[in-house]
Amino acid sequence: MATDYAEIAKDVSALKAPPNLADYADLRSSWNWDEIWAELDTPDGLVNQGHECIDRHATGARANKLAMIWQSQDLAVEEYTFADLKRETDRAANALRSVGIEKGDRVFFLSDRIPELYFAFFGALKLGALAAPLFSAFGPEPIAERVGRADGKAMVTTPKLLSKVDAIRDDLPSLETVIIMDGREEHELADRDISWSALIADASDDFEIEKTGSEDWSVMHFTSGTTGLPKGAAHVHNTVVSHYATGKYVMDFQEEDIYWCTADPGWVTGTSYGMFAPWSNGVTQVIDEGGFGARRWYETITRFKVTVWYTAPTAIRLLMRSGADTAREHDLSSLRYVMSVGEPLNPEGVVWGLDAFDLPIHDNWWQTETGAIMIANYPSMPIRPGSMGRPFPGIHAAIIDDEGNEMTEPMAEGQLAVRPGWPSMFRTYWNDQERYDSRFQMGWYLTGDKAKRDADGYFWFVGRDDDVINTAGHLVSPFEVESALIEHEAVAEAGVIGKPDDLAMEVVKAFVTLNEGREETRELMRDLNRHCRERLGPAVAPREIQVIEILPKTRSGKIMRRLLKARELGLPEGDTSTLEDD
Ligand code: ATP
Ligand code: MG
Question: How does 197-211 read in b/e, with b if 16+ C-beta sit within 10 Å?
Answer without folding.
Answer: eebbeebeeebebbe
